[in-house]
Amino acid sequence: MKLEIYCKSINYYNLLDNLPKYIIPFGLGKNIFPKHWLNDSGQKNISHLNKYYGELTGLYWLWKNKILNYKENSWIGSCQYRRLWLNKLYFEKQKFSVSSLYSNLLTSDNKIFSNSEAILVQPVLLTRQNLSEQFNTVHKTGMNLLSICSDFLNKKEKKNFLNYINKNQLSCFNMFITKTKFFNNYCDALFPWLDKCYKFCKKNGLLKSYNIRLPAFLAERFTSYWFTQNLNIKYLSHARIGEVMLSNNLNRFFNIIKFPLTFRMYPTLYKY
Predict the structure, then answer these.
(1) Domain span at 126
(2) How many domains does the chain have?
């Protein structure tokens, strides 16, 4: 089985060169990256929108330039420089584990691939608000932006999306793993909608300060919705890597995430 997960980053971290081979470093934005890294510039791209779209400019580049090289049932995924897929679900930090984080990363022989069409990050469960209310609380745009942007969807999609954001479960970070044919369908749905969202936000002066990445935050809700609505999904946990582990100085001499005990530091389940 072919599995490739693209690990997005706006900076070069040599730790990403030392991950399993199926995790491919992918540079975003204007910074300079090593020649062996992919990046979101060149060929068909929207790299100039990176400060608004975040990791999605990398997904766009893969969709337009790379996906034709894949067979239909190959698996393609997305992660981030600080967030890596783990091999199963973890409901708390592994306080008594002596194994390394590296040894607990997802592998291509995981049985989850045999009984799912897509894998999402273990969802957070909001206890006080639904997804729409939480978005308004965090982003404070002065309008119900998710509801407004639902108008950019067709009638059936709008109804399903509104129903989803009135619930309280969200898989965060625009992270997913799916088969190539479904990746294409997802991108076909996401990017035309996201372009309209971006233009609306820009026209109304919303893209500033923390909200400069509003399109990426909107896409986070859409990504979780789309995969949940359309595919047979399973969940895995992820590890949020700390700054010490990312240190280029430390990782120049040894791969720090292969050390014992590092696993117990970083399995992450967000609670709200």
Answers:
(1) 3-268
(2) 1
